[in-house]
Amino acid sequence: MAIIAAAVVASFLPTTGIGAQVLSVATKVAIFCLFFLYGARLHPEEALRGLKHWKLHLTILAFTFVVFPLIGLAIGLLPGWALAPALIPGMVYVTLCPSTVQSSINFTSIARGNVAGAIVSASASNLLGVFLTPLLAIALMNTTGNANVGLGSIVDLVVQILLPFILGQLSRRWTADFVARHKKLKLFDQASIVMVVYAAFSQGIREGIWSMVGWVDIVALVVVCLVLLAFMLWFTWFTARRLGFNRADAIAIQMCGTKKSLATGLPMATVLFAGQPIGLIMLPLMVFHQAQLMACSWLAARYARDPEPDAVAPA
User: How many other C-beta atoms lie within 10 A of the C-beta of residue 276?
Assistant: First the structure.
């Protein structure tokens, strides 16, 4: 709700002049701190601990960083009558983001799936995503002409995202316990993301983003997000069962392999696509994120009510 409110407020009360410059600097500082905390929180040993169940984790990562990006390539070819050209870069970017951590684990737990597998895969996805998402964005979005990730963006990426993330990982010996004890640091995460959204939409209003799209385009975006999500929910479950995974593993694959992280994706987009209509690039991820939470919440509750734990629950 705060993210939506930030976008709405920015649409009517955007920052201008000196306020916009101050907010820009504050956003960069917040993103640096945010990825430092991500690095301090994520356990690299979690990924290594799951190597014995490599088939499960490799399947989830393949959905996140292979299947989704291939779909992104197809989305990049959509005609203007199907989706507004101004929204296509953001829709492609959705397919490149890593999976979520908290919601993937929570929904897997509610659905009585393989929670340990979800923890390992979600953690590995975010660790790899800090490096793979920018590389995929450079490889796919530059070559298809959907957006331009220039040299300046790469430098900013290293300074604002990779450097603090690596510092956070290296500092875990001293910071991990502190971050784990102080749960209220999550409020800083949330406030930073809300700030990123407000700054992005403020910039977008100054650049006239709403003149690029109309309500029909927004409805079309919602439809595309729902179709993508429905397909991936079906495809992850269908593939998992065809590969011989049991029900608990199939649930973990479905819950982790269909998610896209707003917490990582939005700040990363701010850095990757600086100087471009960032509000429109963020909008598809915001829509997809809300859709995945509602759909997976319903699915998890449905699986939890299943009286036959080993039955194949259709997606």
Answer: 19
The mean pLDDT value for 132-155 works out to 70
CB-based contact 273:134 (threshold 8 Å): no
Burial class (CB in 10 A: 0-12, 13-18, 19+), 151: exposed
Query: What type of residue sits at position 268?
Result: M
> Is residue 40 a contact partner of residue 176, using CB atoms and an 8 Å limit?
yes
One-character DSSP codes across 8-33: HHHHHS---HHHHHHHHHHHHHHHHH
| Residue that has been written with the tokens 């301090």 in this structure | 40
Q: What is the pLDDT of residues 296-309, one digit of tens each?
A: 989 998 998 876 55
Residue 108's nearest CA partner among 239, 310, 256 is 256
Structure tokens at 113: 């799936």
What is the pLDDT averaged over residues 29-41?
Answer: 84
Residue 156 near residue 269 (C-beta atoms within 8 A): no
What is the per-residue DSSP string for the chain? -HHHHHHHHHHHS---HHHHHHHHHHHHHHHHHHHHHHHHHS-HHHHHHTGGGHHHHHHHHHIIIIIHHHHHHHHTT--TTTS-TTTHHHHHHHTTSPPPSHHHHHHHHHTT--HHHHHHHHHHHHHHHHHHHHHHIIIIIHHHTS----HHHHHHHIIIIIHHHHHHHHTHHHHHHHHHH-TTHHHHHHHHHHHHHHHHHHHHHHTTGGGT--HHHHHHHHHHHHHHHHHHHHHHHHHHHHTT--HHHHHHHHHHHT---HHHHHHHHHHHTTTS-HHHHHHHHHHHHHHHHHHHHHHHHHHHT-S-TTS----
Q: For residues 243 and 216, give the distance between their C-alpha atoms in angstroms, rounded to a whole number.
A: 40
Whole-number Å distance between alpha carbons of 159 and 223: 36
Q: What is the pLDDT of residues 243-294, one digit of tens each?
A: 999 999 999 999 999 999 888 888 888 888 877 777 888 899 989 988 998 8
